[in-house]
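Data deposition worksheet. Section B asks for the primary sequence of the deposited chain exactly as it was used as input, without tags or linkers unless they were present during the calculation. Section C holds the resulting structure in C-alpha coordinate form. Section D is free text for depositor observations; keep each observation to a single sentence. Incomplete worksheets are returned to the depositor.
Section A, Depositor: J.P.
Section B:
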Amino acid sequence: MLLSYFNDAFKNFSDAAKNATPVDQYYAIANNPVQLRFATSRLARALSPALEHLVGEHVLSPSLTVCLWDNAAAKDPMPPFPWKEFAPGTPNIESANEGTNPVIYFKDERIHGAYQIGSKTFSMLDTKRNIALFWVPDAGKITYYERSSPLRTIFQWWAKKYSLQLLHAGAVGTNAGGILLVGEGGSGKSTTALACLDSELFYVSDDYCLLDMDSHPYAHSVYCSAKIGREGVARFPYLISAVENKERLQEEKALFFLNKHWPKKVSKGFSVRALLIPRIMGLKRTKLTPASPRNALMALAPSTIFQFPGAGQEDLTFMAELTRCIPSFFLELGKDVDSIPDIILDALSKN
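Section C:
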Protein backbone atom coordinates (compact mmCIF):
# COMPACT_ATOMS: atom_id res chain seq x y z
CA MET A 1 0.00 0.00 0.00
CA LEU A 2 2.75 2.48 0.85
CA LEU A 3 4.52 1.90 -2.48
CA SER A 4 1.26 2.65 -4.28
CA TYR A 5 0.87 5.86 -2.26
CA PHE A 6 4.52 6.79 -2.93
CA ASN A 7 3.94 6.39 -6.68
CA ASP A 8 0.79 8.55 -6.53
CA ALA A 9 2.66 11.28 -4.65
CA PHE A 10 5.61 11.01 -7.05
CA LYS A 11 3.19 11.58 -9.96
CA ASN A 12 1.97 14.67 -8.11
CA PHE A 13 5.54 15.96 -8.05
CA SER A 14 6.11 15.08 -11.73
CA ASP A 15 3.01 17.02 -12.74
CA ALA A 16 4.14 19.97 -10.60
CA ALA A 17 7.55 19.94 -12.28
CA LYS A 18 5.92 19.95 -15.74
CA ASN A 19 3.88 23.02 -14.80
CA ALA A 20 6.92 24.96 -13.57
CA THR A 21 10.64 25.33 -14.23
CA PRO A 22 12.36 22.70 -12.10
CA VAL A 23 15.75 23.39 -10.53
CA ASP A 24 18.29 20.56 -10.22
CA GLN A 25 21.04 20.95 -7.65
CA TYR A 26 23.77 18.47 -6.73
CA TYR A 27 25.61 18.05 -3.43
CA ALA A 28 28.29 15.80 -1.97
CA ILE A 29 27.02 14.72 1.46
CA ALA A 30 29.51 12.57 3.36
CA ASN A 31 31.20 12.03 -0.02
CA ASN A 32 27.99 10.63 -1.54
CA PRO A 33 26.39 12.42 -4.54
CA VAL A 34 22.88 13.68 -3.79
CA GLN A 35 20.47 15.34 -6.23
CA LEU A 36 17.75 17.74 -5.11
CA ARG A 37 15.11 18.31 -7.79
CA PHE A 38 13.02 21.34 -6.87
CA ALA A 39 9.77 21.90 -8.72
CA THR A 40 10.26 25.69 -8.41
CA SER A 41 13.10 28.12 -7.84
CA ARG A 42 11.18 29.61 -4.91
CA LEU A 43 11.50 26.36 -2.98
CA ALA A 44 15.16 26.06 -3.98
CA ARG A 45 15.89 29.54 -2.62
CA ALA A 46 14.26 28.63 0.69
CA LEU A 47 16.04 25.32 1.31
CA SER A 48 19.37 25.29 -0.52
CA PRO A 49 21.39 27.94 1.44
CA ALA A 50 21.99 25.52 4.33
CA LEU A 51 23.69 23.08 1.93
CA GLU A 52 25.63 25.62 -0.11
CA HIS A 53 29.05 24.51 1.18
CA LEU A 54 28.49 20.98 -0.20
CA VAL A 55 27.61 21.89 -3.80
CA GLY A 56 28.93 19.17 -6.11
CA GLU A 57 29.12 18.17 -9.75
CA HIS A 58 26.25 16.87 -11.85
CA VAL A 59 26.16 13.06 -11.75
CA LEU A 60 24.07 10.60 -13.74
CA SER A 61 23.45 8.17 -10.88
CA PRO A 62 23.22 9.96 -7.53
CA SER A 63 23.05 7.88 -4.35
CA LEU A 64 19.86 9.78 -3.46
CA THR A 65 17.40 11.90 -5.43
CA VAL A 66 14.99 14.09 -3.48
CA CYS A 67 11.96 15.57 -5.27
CA LEU A 68 10.61 18.74 -3.61
CA TRP A 69 7.41 20.68 -4.31
CA ASP A 70 4.53 22.59 -2.76
CA ASN A 71 0.84 23.13 -3.43
CA ALA A 72 1.44 26.27 -5.48
CA ALA A 73 3.35 24.26 -8.07
CA ALA A 74 1.10 21.18 -8.02
CA LYS A 75 -1.59 20.55 -10.63
CA ASP A 76 -3.52 18.32 -8.22
CA PRO A 77 -3.62 18.30 -4.39
CA MET A 78 -1.63 15.74 -2.46
CA PRO A 79 -3.38 12.37 -2.18
CA PRO A 80 -4.97 11.84 1.26
CA PHE A 81 -2.20 10.97 3.70
CA PRO A 82 -1.81 7.21 4.26
CA TRP A 83 -1.06 6.90 7.95
CA LYS A 84 -4.40 5.69 9.36
CA GLU A 85 -3.48 2.05 8.75
CA PHE A 86 0.25 2.41 9.45
CA ALA A 87 0.25 4.76 12.47
CA PRO A 88 -3.10 4.25 14.24
CA GLY A 89 -3.98 6.41 17.20
CA THR A 90 -1.36 9.10 16.54
CA PRO A 91 -2.52 12.33 18.23
CA ASN A 92 -2.91 15.32 15.94
CA ILE A 93 -1.37 17.86 18.34
CA GLU A 94 0.23 20.93 16.83
CA SER A 95 3.44 22.36 18.28
CA ALA A 96 5.55 25.26 17.07
CA ASN A 97 8.56 24.23 19.15
CA GLU A 98 11.64 23.37 17.16
CA GLY A 99 12.79 19.81 17.72
CA THR A 100 9.66 18.84 19.69
CA ASN A 101 7.07 18.83 16.93
CA PRO A 102 4.90 15.70 17.06
CA VAL A 103 5.58 13.43 14.09
CA ILE A 104 3.35 10.86 12.44
CA TYR A 105 5.79 8.13 11.35
CA PHE A 106 4.90 5.12 9.21
CA LYS A 107 6.86 2.51 7.29
CA ASP A 108 6.90 -0.91 5.70
CA GLU A 109 9.76 -3.10 4.49
CA ARG A 110 10.60 -0.61 1.70
CA ILE A 111 9.08 2.81 2.37
CA HIS A 112 9.66 5.28 5.22
CA GLY A 113 7.28 8.19 5.70
CA ALA A 114 6.73 11.01 8.19
CA TYR A 115 4.51 14.04 8.59
CA GLN A 116 5.92 16.79 10.85
CA ILE A 117 2.85 18.34 12.41
CA GLY A 118 4.28 21.69 13.52
CA SER A 119 6.09 22.53 10.29
CA LYS A 120 3.50 20.68 8.13
CA THR A 121 6.17 18.94 6.05
CA PHE A 122 5.72 15.51 4.51
CA SER A 123 8.68 13.21 3.75
CA MET A 124 8.96 9.76 2.14
CA LEU A 125 11.87 7.57 1.06
CA ASP A 126 11.82 4.56 -1.25
CA THR A 127 14.87 2.65 0.01
CA LYS A 128 14.98 0.40 -3.07
CA ARG A 129 15.02 3.15 -5.71
CA ASN A 130 16.85 5.74 -3.53
CA ILE A 131 14.19 8.33 -4.35
CA ALA A 132 12.72 10.60 -1.69
CA LEU A 133 9.78 13.01 -1.70
CA PHE A 134 9.47 16.22 0.29
CA TRP A 135 6.27 18.28 0.22
CA VAL A 136 5.23 21.48 1.99
CA PRO A 137 1.91 23.34 1.63
CA ASP A 138 3.55 26.67 0.80
CA ALA A 139 7.21 27.32 -0.08
CA GLY A 140 6.81 30.87 1.23
CA LYS A 141 5.90 29.72 4.75
CA ILE A 142 8.70 27.29 5.56
CA THR A 143 9.77 27.57 9.20
CA TYR A 144 13.17 29.00 10.08
CA TYR A 145 14.28 25.70 11.61
CA GLU A 146 13.32 23.80 8.45
CA ARG A 147 15.40 26.29 6.44
CA SER A 148 18.24 25.74 8.88
CA SER A 149 18.31 21.93 8.57
CA PRO A 150 16.22 20.89 5.57
CA LEU A 151 15.48 17.23 4.79
CA ARG A 152 17.07 15.96 8.00
CA THR A 153 14.42 13.25 8.35
CA ILE A 154 15.14 11.94 4.85
CA PHE A 155 18.90 12.17 5.34
CA GLN A 156 18.63 10.20 8.59
CA TRP A 157 16.83 7.32 6.85
CA TRP A 158 19.10 7.37 3.80
CA ALA A 159 22.34 7.55 5.79
CA LYS A 160 21.77 4.10 7.32
CA LYS A 161 22.46 2.51 3.93
CA TYR A 162 26.00 3.93 4.09
CA SER A 163 26.58 3.03 7.77
CA LEU A 164 26.27 6.70 8.72
CA GLN A 165 24.37 8.11 11.68
CA LEU A 166 22.77 11.54 11.78
CA LEU A 167 23.36 12.94 15.26
CA HIS A 168 21.90 15.86 17.16
CA ALA A 169 25.35 17.27 17.84
CA GLY A 170 27.64 20.18 17.04
CA ALA A 171 31.22 19.78 15.85
CA VAL A 172 34.23 22.10 15.76
CA GLY A 173 37.90 21.36 15.27
CA THR A 174 40.98 21.60 13.07
CA ASN A 175 42.07 19.64 10.03
CA ALA A 176 43.89 17.32 12.45
CA GLY A 177 40.72 16.47 14.36
CA GLY A 178 37.84 17.90 16.33
CA ILE A 179 35.25 17.43 19.05
CA LEU A 180 31.53 16.69 19.15
CA LEU A 181 29.27 18.94 21.22
CA VAL A 182 26.40 16.89 22.61
CA GLY A 183 23.38 17.76 24.72
CA GLU A 184 19.74 18.70 24.51
CA GLY A 185 18.55 21.98 23.02
CA GLY A 186 19.54 24.95 25.15
CA SER A 187 22.58 23.24 26.66
CA GLY A 188 25.05 25.59 24.98
CA LYS A 189 26.07 23.71 21.81
CA SER A 190 25.39 26.66 19.50
CA THR A 191 27.03 29.18 21.83
CA THR A 192 30.13 26.99 21.97
CA ALA A 193 30.28 26.41 18.20
CA LEU A 194 29.75 30.07 17.31
CA ALA A 195 32.34 31.20 19.86
CA CYS A 196 34.88 29.32 17.74
CA LEU A 197 34.27 31.34 14.56
CA ASP A 198 36.78 33.95 15.69
CA SER A 199 39.55 31.40 16.24
CA GLU A 200 41.64 28.86 14.36
CA LEU A 201 38.93 26.23 14.83
CA PHE A 202 36.66 25.25 11.93
CA TYR A 203 32.91 24.73 12.03
CA VAL A 204 31.14 21.52 10.98
CA SER A 205 27.83 21.97 12.77
CA ASP A 206 26.02 23.44 15.75
CA ASP A 207 23.05 21.05 15.73
CA TYR A 208 23.28 18.11 13.29
CA CYS A 209 26.13 16.18 11.70
CA LEU A 210 26.66 12.78 10.10
CA LEU A 211 29.01 10.41 11.88
CA ASP A 212 31.00 7.62 10.26
CA MET A 213 32.45 4.90 12.52
CA ASP A 214 34.28 2.93 9.80
CA SER A 215 37.81 3.01 11.25
CA HIS A 216 37.67 5.98 13.62
CA PRO A 217 34.83 8.39 14.39
CA TYR A 218 34.56 10.99 11.63
CA ALA A 219 32.09 13.89 11.59
CA HIS A 220 30.72 15.01 8.21
CA SER A 221 29.10 18.40 7.81
CA VAL A 222 25.54 18.50 6.49
CA TYR A 223 24.44 22.10 7.09
CA CYS A 224 26.39 25.37 7.13
CA SER A 225 23.65 27.00 9.19
CA ALA A 226 23.49 27.99 12.85
CA LYS A 227 20.75 29.15 15.21
CA ILE A 228 21.01 31.00 18.50
CA GLY A 229 18.63 32.94 20.75
CA ARG A 230 18.51 36.74 20.83
CA GLU A 231 20.49 36.85 24.06
CA GLY A 232 23.19 34.75 22.40
CA VAL A 233 23.55 37.17 19.50
CA ALA A 234 24.34 39.91 22.00
CA ARG A 235 27.40 37.92 23.16
CA PHE A 236 28.85 37.90 19.63
CA PRO A 237 28.53 41.37 18.04
CA TYR A 238 30.23 40.18 14.84
CA LEU A 239 27.19 37.96 14.16
CA ILE A 240 24.59 40.75 14.09
CA SER A 241 25.03 41.74 10.45
CA ALA A 242 24.70 38.08 9.35
CA VAL A 243 21.29 37.36 10.93
CA GLU A 244 18.86 36.21 8.21
CA ASN A 245 15.61 36.81 10.13
CA LYS A 246 16.20 40.06 12.03
CA GLU A 247 12.55 41.08 11.80
CA ARG A 248 11.31 37.90 13.55
CA LEU A 249 13.63 37.55 16.53
CA GLN A 250 10.77 38.05 18.99
CA GLU A 251 9.43 34.59 18.09
CA GLU A 252 12.38 32.85 16.37
CA LYS A 253 16.01 32.10 17.08
CA ALA A 254 18.51 34.04 14.99
CA LEU A 255 19.39 32.11 11.82
CA PHE A 256 22.76 32.28 10.04
CA PHE A 257 24.17 30.70 6.90
CA LEU A 258 27.86 30.62 7.70
CA ASN A 259 29.07 29.75 4.21
CA LYS A 260 27.62 33.07 3.04
CA HIS A 261 29.68 35.15 5.49
CA TRP A 262 32.55 32.94 6.72
CA PRO A 263 33.14 30.36 3.95
CA LYS A 264 36.74 29.74 5.01
CA LYS A 265 35.59 28.75 8.51
CA VAL A 266 33.23 25.99 7.34
CA SER A 267 34.74 22.51 7.18
CA LYS A 268 33.30 19.46 5.41
CA GLY A 269 34.51 17.21 8.20
CA PHE A 270 37.26 15.83 10.41
CA SER A 271 38.04 12.91 12.70
CA VAL A 272 36.50 13.13 16.17
CA ARG A 273 38.83 12.86 19.13
CA ALA A 274 36.58 13.75 22.08
CA LEU A 275 33.00 14.51 23.11
CA LEU A 276 32.20 17.66 25.08
CA ILE A 277 28.96 18.09 27.02
CA PRO A 278 28.27 21.82 27.40
CA ARG A 279 26.54 22.86 30.62
CA ILE A 280 25.57 26.46 31.38
CA MET A 281 26.86 26.88 34.92
CA GLY A 282 26.95 30.66 35.42
CA LEU A 283 30.54 30.42 36.63
CA LYS A 284 33.08 33.15 36.17
CA ARG A 285 35.41 30.95 34.14
CA THR A 286 34.70 28.13 31.69
CA LYS A 287 36.41 24.82 32.45
CA LEU A 288 36.58 21.15 31.46
CA THR A 289 35.83 18.35 33.91
CA PRO A 290 35.88 14.59 33.24
CA ALA A 291 32.69 12.83 32.09
CA SER A 292 31.93 9.13 31.74
CA PRO A 293 30.76 7.30 28.61
CA ARG A 294 27.36 7.02 30.30
CA ASN A 295 27.25 10.83 30.82
CA ALA A 296 28.00 11.31 27.11
CA LEU A 297 25.41 8.75 25.99
CA MET A 298 22.73 10.31 28.18
CA ALA A 299 23.52 13.73 26.70
CA LEU A 300 23.53 12.51 23.10
CA ALA A 301 21.03 9.68 22.72
CA PRO A 302 17.66 11.01 23.97
CA SER A 303 17.59 14.15 21.84
CA THR A 304 18.89 12.29 18.78
CA ILE A 305 16.35 9.46 19.03
CA PHE A 306 13.51 11.82 19.90
CA GLN A 307 14.12 14.09 16.91
CA PHE A 308 14.44 11.46 14.17
CA PRO A 309 11.36 9.44 13.17
CA GLY A 310 12.03 5.72 13.24
CA ALA A 311 15.17 5.97 15.36
CA GLY A 312 15.55 3.22 17.95
CA GLN A 313 17.79 0.45 19.19
CA GLU A 314 20.13 0.44 16.17
CA ASP A 315 20.80 4.15 16.67
CA LEU A 316 21.31 3.70 20.41
CA THR A 317 23.85 0.91 19.81
CA PHE A 318 25.76 3.14 17.38
CA MET A 319 25.90 6.01 19.87
CA ALA A 320 26.91 3.71 22.73
CA GLU A 321 29.85 2.47 20.66
CA LEU A 322 30.85 6.06 19.90
CA THR A 323 30.83 7.13 23.54
CA ARG A 324 32.94 4.12 24.55
CA CYS A 325 35.72 4.67 22.03
CA ILE A 326 36.67 8.34 22.67
CA PRO A 327 37.00 10.38 25.90
CA SER A 328 34.23 12.66 27.16
CA PHE A 329 34.25 15.87 29.20
CA PHE A 330 31.80 18.35 30.64
CA LEU A 331 32.35 21.84 29.24
CA GLU A 332 31.15 23.93 32.17
CA LEU A 333 30.34 27.21 30.49
CA GLY A 334 31.08 30.39 32.38
CA LYS A 335 30.73 34.03 31.45
CA ASP A 336 34.07 34.13 29.63
CA VAL A 337 32.90 32.84 26.23
CA ASP A 338 36.09 34.19 24.63
CA SER A 339 38.07 31.44 26.36
CA ILE A 340 36.07 28.58 24.80
CA PRO A 341 38.26 28.13 21.67
CA ASP A 342 41.48 27.92 23.72
CA ILE A 343 39.92 25.36 26.06
CA ILE A 344 38.86 23.22 23.09
CA LEU A 345 42.27 23.52 21.43
CA ASP A 346 43.92 22.48 24.69
CA ALA A 347 41.60 19.46 24.93
CA LEU A 348 42.46 18.47 21.34
CA SER A 349 46.19 18.71 22.06
CA LYS A 350 45.80 16.14 24.86
CA ASN A 351 43.51 13.64 23.13
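Section D:
The two ends are 51 Å apart (CA to CA).
The first helix runs from residue 2 to 18.
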